[in-house]
């Protein structure tokens, strides 16, 4: 969930190291190729063109019935909503493994977009939730009939945290809370981990809790609160925030975020430290730089990413238009616009 808050509120809480043991370094096995398909994003642009790095959804994706047209139908394109979901396909030799990373906001968007792209969700071999906010987990409600029973789902144990937005002089908004019991009842095999996890024969890293080491990425404003069992308290860190990392042979790290609540630079630093791989090749996903509470974080984030010099940057979801423009200006050769239905390819 993304809330702009007020200017300066992001500086109200100091960063701290993540709890738990950091498994350092981790032997992340290199892969031959990774393809990341954005199934749900805030944006769909049917006029975007592809190249050797990205394939865009066809403009005519999603034929639907519409009696107002002579042909009896029209092309609906891809769904866009305030949420994020991606399908990650990892290729190693003759083996391909697919994981679903987040599931969007609404129960049906990820299913509708998958159908319009011709993506078979039943081929997914696992689910990873970046965190428990409902704009990344809402699509689970529509997936139970599409995925096999016993599907493993990797989550941080704080993903079940009850949260709300309580901005000054505005109505309180209670965020929908994930139910572990309900997900288990639907046949998901929930795997809770605070520490890093290796999936897909050691070739996909889930970061677990991210170390907070920068001075400028300080989390959510005071309006974002969590229930402690005794009362509501400011929840700046969103400790369940985690990212997915792949090491593409001869290229470097590919880092996929959901909202990036831990901070894009913190996440990249954490991935490099865990793996011992210095080179950041690609950064994709939400970077949470939208709104007055987070726009002051844009310049130092741009400076740090410019120094890292990634070959591909695809800011999505909650990155915000100001940060999009700044990233496109600072990293013109690396920046690619995000859009529902786009597939990004990074190969050795």
Note the topology.
Elements (H helix, E strand, L loop, with lengths): L32 E8 L13 E2 L7 E3 L7 E3 L9 E8 L2 E7 L7 H9 L9 E2 L5 H4 L2 H4 L8 E4 L7 E3 L7 E2 L5 H6 L3 E4 L4 E3 L4 E3 L17 E4 L4 E3 L9 E5 L3 E6 L6 H12 L4 E7 L11 H11 L3 E5 L4 H10 L12 E5 L1
Organism: Pseudonocardia zijingensis
Protein name: MBL fold metallo-hydrolase
Pfam families: Lactamase_B
Notable traits:
single chain, alpha+beta, Metallo-beta-lactamase, Chain A, 8-stranded mixed beta sheet, 6-stranded mixed beta sheet, 25% strand, globular, RibonucZ/Hydroxyglut_hydro, Metallo-beta-lactamase_dom
Describe the structure.
The structure is a single chain. With 348 residues, the protein is an alpha+beta fold. The protein has a single domain, classed as Metallo-beta-lactamase, Chain A, CATH 3.60.15.10. It is 16% helix and 25% strand. The chain has seven helices and 20 strands. The chain has helices at residues 109-117, 134-137, 140-143, 180-185, 264-275, 298-308, 321-330; strands at 33-40, 54-55, 63-65, 73-75, 85-92, 95-101, 127-128, 152-155, 163-165, 173-174, 189-192, 197-199, 204-206, 224-227, 232-234, 244-248, 252-257, 280-286, 312-316, 343-347. The strands form four sheets. Strands 2-20-1-5-6-7-8-11 form an eight-stranded mixed β-sheet. A six-stranded mixed β-sheet has the order 12-13-16-17-18-19, covered by helices on one side. Strand 12 and strand 13 (204-206) form a beta hairpin. Helix 6 runs parallel beside helix 7. The radius of gyration is 19 Å and the shape is globular.
């Amino acid at each position: 969930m993304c809330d702009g808050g007020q200017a300066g509120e992001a500086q109200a809480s100091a960063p701290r190291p993540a709890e738990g043991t950091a498994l350092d370094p981790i032997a992340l096995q290199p892969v031959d190729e990774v393809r990341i398909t954005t199934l749900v994003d805030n944006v769909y642009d049917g006029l975007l063109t592809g190249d050797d790095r990205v394939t865009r959804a066809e403009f005519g994706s999603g034929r639907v019935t519409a009696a107002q047209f002579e042909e009896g139908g029209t092309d609906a394109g891809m769904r866009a909503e305030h949420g994020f979901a991606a399908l990650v396909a990892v290729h190693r030799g003759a083996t391909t493994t697919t994981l679903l990373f987040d599931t969007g906001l609404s129960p049906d968007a990820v299913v509708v977009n998958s159908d319009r792209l011709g993506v078979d969700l039943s081929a997914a071999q696992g689910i990873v939730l970046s965190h428990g906010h409902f704009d990344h987990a809402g699509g689970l409600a529509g997936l139970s009939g599409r995925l096999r029973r016993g599907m493993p789902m990797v989550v941080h144990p704080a993903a079940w945290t009850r949260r709300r937005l309580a901005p000054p002089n505005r109505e309180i908004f209670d965020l929908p809370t994930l139910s572990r019991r309900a997900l288990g009842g639907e046949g998901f095999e929930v795997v809770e981990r605070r520490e890093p996890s290796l999936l897909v024969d050691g070739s996909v890293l889930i970061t677990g809790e991210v170390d907070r080491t920068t001075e400028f990425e300080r989390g959510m404003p005071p309006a974002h609160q969590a229930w402690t069992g005794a009362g509501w308290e400011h929840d700046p860190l969103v400790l369940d925030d985690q990212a997915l990392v792949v090491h593409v042979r001869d290229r470097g790290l590919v880092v996929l975020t959901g909202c990036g609540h831990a901070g894009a630079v913190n996440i990249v630093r954490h991935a490099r430290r865990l793996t011992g791989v210095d080179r950041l090749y690609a950064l994709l996903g939400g970077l949470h730089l939208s709104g007055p509470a987070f726009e002051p974080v844009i310049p130092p984030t741009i400076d740090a990413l410019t120094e890292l010099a990634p070959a591909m940057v695809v800011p999505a979801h909650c990155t915000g238009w100001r940060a999009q423009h700044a990233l496109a200006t600072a990293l013109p050769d690396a920046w690619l616009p995000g859009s529902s239905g786009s597939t990004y390819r990074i190969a050795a």
